[in-house]
Design a protein that fits this description.
Blueprint (H helix, E strand, L loop, with lengths): L1 H21 L4 E7 L7 H8 L2 H4 L2 E7 L3 H9 L5 E4 L2 H8 L6 E8 L4 E5 L15 E3 L6 H12 L9 E3 L7 H7 L4 E5 L2 H8 L3 E5 H5 L5 E6 H6 L1 H20 L2 H8 L8 H13 L11 H13 L9 H4 L3 H8 L3
Parallel strand pairs: 1-2, 1-3, 6-7, 6-8
Antiparallel strand pairs: 3-10, 4-10, 5-8, 5-9
Length: about 325
Amino acid sequence: MKKIKRIMLLSCGFLLFLTACNNQEETTIKLAEVTRSLFYAPQYVALEKGFFKEAGLNVELQTTWGGDKTMTALLSDGADVALVGSETSIYVYAQDSKDYAVNFAQLTQTDGTFLVAKEPKPNFTWEDIKGTTFLGQRKGGMPQMVGEFVLKQHDINPQTDLDLQQNIEFANIPGAFVSGDAEYVQLFEPTASTFEKEGKGHIVASFGEESGHVPYTVFMAKQSFLKENDAEIEKFTKAVYKAQQWVEAHSAKEIAQVIQPYFEDTDVEMLAASIDRYKSQGSFATDPILDESEWSNLKDIMQEAGELPADVPYTDLVNTKIAEEVIGNKE
């Protein structure tokens, strides 16, 4: 009888242990992404493959459509973490914000836009842009600053050598290009490839290949959030790193199949073609560390565009300790 009671007690204890484990509450992280783009494939992989869940995190994703709106969400606590261009953290810091945003995990390391021409340009050269109407991105944002940086590298003055239009909202740029008179536009994937397939445009150059490595899209959080939720941020970064390694090790087709739920209106083959463009030019960072040379390149691009408000030190706005610990302790 004593043996039976002992077995029953052990069984009950084991069941209570399993129940307690299963009932552990996940920590919710509110994540705001600046736009919905294949450029952020590793993020969607982390969500779809359950890497955040494995880390004990419930990540709630919202798309905020624009750098200014994304930073407003972050600074007003509408989001805990923002996926946005790292230049936005410089703008906030320069405004003497007491609780400014700090970059802690890099997702992409090149520009993600492509130059799309309305008409076929089989022998395209950058000189072809001179004297044309160019539909650019929002002034002060990374796509526009990189675009101008690349044009200047090819001895093209964006203000005098072409008709540069910057008055269209980010989400409306593709439609404005199709219906308007602009001869060139700067587009992300999969829109660029979709336009090419539908005969609405033709990809003639990559701004990512032209501009080199830069911390283009980065996960950031306010100083206070990083300090008060250091364990959760480490878990978040670990999931991101796991997704980065997964993307590096798998084909564009496999990645497309995983993340298609985020791009339901685009077929897998088109997604794969777009992802392959990004993989081939090294757009996806393979680890979350934002290094100092990339930060310097960012400031050079901003300075060239006349948008650098202050020479912000790398050590003030970049935290690599979390990513370094994650990589050092990888399983």
